[in-house]
Amino acid sequence: MEYIFRKATLNDLPQIWVILQNAIQRRKEDGSNQWQDGYPNPQIVEKDIEQDAGFVLADGDSIAGYCAILINDEPAYAEIKGKWLTDDNFVVFHRVAISEDHLRKGLSGKMLNYIEDFARNNNINSVKADTNFDNGAMKHVFEKAGYVYCGEVFFRGSSRLAYEKLLT
């Protein structure tokens, strides 16, 4: 299949929200408390899109995945229990979710490749991200893609695992 990674539009919002709702449910079924507090929600995604930070992995008219990508825009990363690999400019991504119809096809890894391309295209050599302690699937994606565990950051009252990858 030929996937296209592009900026999300408000027209994509209904499909994105279904993907996120399913991901929220999967996290719950996995026994995770990640995304069980009303976040993410349609307002967050709408804000991502309006700020040109929302991106989709599209398969024709169908949305296969969603994420938000920001440059140097994660205040919680200023304080880490641990140490980042660099203090340089960085790309950060959040809200990675894959459609139920596209699970187990390696699309999270493919999306990370597009995010890394986005960083390179913006002359940035660092990508940072975080995930919940109990999100084994995302931890596996990070490790497989060469991300290095750097410590813990804190969001909305809870600790999260922080990762960084240096691009060459």
UniProtKB/TrEMBL annotation:
Record keywords: Transferase
InterPro entries: Acyl_CoA_acyltransferase (IPR016181), GNAT_dom (IPR000182)
Pfam family name, one: Acetyltransf_1
Residue ranges occupied by any N-acetyltransferase domain in the UniProt entry: 3-168
Keyword Transferase set for record: yes
Xref: CDD domains: NAT_SF (cd04301)
Molecular function terms from GO: acyltransferase activity, transferring groups other than amino-acyl groups
Protein name: GNAT family N-acetyltransferase
Species in which this protein is naturally found: Pedobacter ginsengisoli
The organism's taxonomic lineage, starting at the top: Bacteria, Pseudomonadati, Bacteroidota, Sphingobacteriia, Sphingobacteriales
